[in-house]
Design brief:
alpha/beta, Rossmann fold, four-stranded parallel β-sheet, 19 helices, 37% helix
Length: 557
């Protein structure tokens, strides 16, 4: 029996009365109830079009014989929420919990989730894996690429304007022109940042319809896909295909390899383990990333890894074509189940690459190795992440002098005052899940560094995270974090630090005994969370980066 039909018995008369009050008819009571989970809100430019998208999903649900219920969740824009960045990563787990409450309290039979942007899509995938009711995602496409001075203009260019203005390269007026041109209403920022990486992950996992990841936010295609998703969710319900039949070790391995091929955001190193944790997979995600980075090449050069943007990816055949190319080269398993009710191989039967200068064959890639690399060493025994595809060749190996800051503001001030110089390795600490709390981004600092033209001479190491648009030698997600008394906390101003991306190493040139002594003597201060009770709860419950920084019982330190 359908979960929702508990309201049809005599004992559930009050529930039926309330459903009638919500506009449900007596005939509707016999039909499947489908939640259309929507992250639309007016505080997120990427979500402004999602009401129309959700309306088409509901239309498809009705056509297939179901009853749709549109229900909201929150959905931050990471860039706007930089006003108080500690809330950004914790919002992901709050959204996943919102979905659980909505679905379980109402006993919906299935759900279609409509979302876009960095934390919303992973939260929806986490909820799908956790609840295991028939589910499907509709990701909201990407913004049109802006233009300034005859060149493409995106959020990537917006991030560099402060540094360029302070260097005297552009006037205040030109800075505002760039900012106005960079972002359009509706959709993810149009480079290969976290939002588009997560859309690709949803499709690579098989949780969104083929082609969804590279469809633009404007135009009829996304609306047609949304309507089809509404129809398809009833088919998944009928056949009993639930997320745990789609999100498997094999499909997650495929997805990790896809991330390497597209040069995806470093932030997936916290989201993919979280999805795996919620779905109760056995895969060692970090080990899979490490192996994939050395086996799967970068086959598409989307900014910040190359000259192209999402529209070019779409025109070249989209993610379907890229995945089919990886399958032909033996890099991924094509026999995994997807939300179409067919295997990936069946979905790709008629798919081909339309432009091999955009989506390169595996035999002629943009770069021989994948977009991300896992570095380990005496200050990162549990690993750290770098987007190697966005690092200049001259910075792939580097030795420099440590400049240590607790918090991004102190590093920004030092950069503005000229206290950070060529050859420095900047450490920004206290940014991890526990220390932030909330795994805080240092995107503002990296943008300032890029705007000053210092990405080819200054490296950055942090226990926090980056924007998917970050470029340069930026090593993040260092684990264990400094606030948990990881060896990262032993770094001092003036120490010599080196890393070697090809060899996957990172090293503080201080002996092990001195590192232990420094860490033992450090005083750990509890992060100040102000009036926010949720942040205090988050800091108490957040687990390690290896588990995707999900909430749960605190592990022993």
């Amino acid at each position: 029996m359908l979960r929702s039909k508990a309201v049809t018995g005599v004992a559930a008369a009050e529930q039926r009365s309330l459903l009638y009050g919500a506009g449900i008819t007596e005939a509707d009571l016999a039909k499947p109830f489908v939640a259309v989970v929507n992250s639309w809100n007016e505080a997120n430019p990427g979500a402004l079009h999602l009401r129309e998208v959700a309306a088409e999903v509901k239309r498809g649900v009705r056509e297939a014989g179901g009853v749709p219920f549109e229900v909201p969740t929150m959905g931050l824009c990471d860039g706007i929420a930089l006003a108080n960045p500690r809330y950004i990563t914790p919002s992901r787990d709050l959204i996943a919990n919102e979905v659980e409450v909505i679905i379980e309290a109402n006993q919906f039979d299935a759900m279609v989730m409509v979302g876009v942007c960095d934390k919303i899509v992973p939260a929806y995938l986490m909820a799908a894996g956790r609840l295991d009711v028939p589910a499907l995602l509709v990701t909201g496409g990407y913004m049109a690429v802006g233009e300034h001075d005859g060149r493409p203009c995106t959020f990537l260019e917006a991030g560099k304007t402060v540094g360029r203005h302070r260097q005297g390269e552009i006037t205040a007026g030109e800075m505002e022109q760039i900012l106005k041109a960079a972002c359009a209403p509706g959709g993810a920022c149009s480079m290969m940042g976290t939002a588009n990486t997560m859309a690709c992950i949803a499709e690579a996992l098989g949780m969104s319809l083929p082609g969804n990841a590279t469809v633009p936010a404007d135009g009829p295609r996304l609306l047609e896909m949304a309507r089809e998703a509404g129809r398809q969710i009833l088919s998944l319900l009928e056949t009993g295909i639930t997320p745990r039949k789609i999100i498997t070790d094999s499909s997650m391995r495929n997805t990790i390899r896809c991330v390497m091929a597209i040069g995806g955001s470093t932030n997936v190193l916290v989201h993919i383990p979280a999805i795996a944790e919620e779905t109760e997979l056995t895969l060692d995600c970090l080990a899979e990333f490490d192996a994939a980075s050395q086996d799967v090449p970068l086959v598409i050069g989307l900014a910040p890894n190359g000259p192209h943007y999402m529209p070019a990816f779409d025109q070249a055949g989209g993610l379907e074509a890229l995945l089919a190319e990886l399958a032909r080269a033996g890099k991924i398993d094509p026999d995994v189940m997807t939300c179409t009710g067919c295997t990936a191989a069946e979905n790709w039967r008629e798919v081909s690459v339309k432009d091999e200068e955009i989506i390169r064959p595996v035999s002629r890639p943009f770069k021989e190795q994948g977009g991300l690399a896992v570095l380990r060493g005496n200050i990162a025994p549990d690993g750290s992440i770098v987007k190697q595809s966005a690092v200049a060749d001259g910075m792939k190996t580097f030795t420099g002098t440590a400049r240590v800051f607790w918090g991004e503001a102190a590093a920004q001030e030092a950069l503005e005052d000229g206290r950070i110089d060529h050859g420095d390795v900047v450490f920004i600490l206290g940014m991890g899940p526990r220390g932030g709390p909330g795994l805080i981004t240092v995107y503002t600092f990296t943008s300032m560094l890029a705007g000053r033209g210092m990405t080819d001479s200054v490296a950055l190491i942090t226990d926090g995270r980056f924007s998917g648009a970050t470029e340069g030698a930026c090593i993040g997600h260092v684990s264990p974090e400094a606030a948990a008394k990881g060896p990262l906390a032993a770094v001092r101003d003036g120490d010599t630090v080196s890393y070697d991306i090809p060899k996957r190493t990172i090293h503080l040139h201080v002996d092990d005994e001195e590192i232990r002594r420094r860490v033992e003597q450090m005083e750990v201060h509890a992060p100040k969370v102000g009036r926010g009770r949720y942040l205090a709860q988050y800091a108490e419950l957040v687990q390690s980066l290896g588990k995707g920084a999900v909430l749960g019982k605190r592990e022993s330190s």
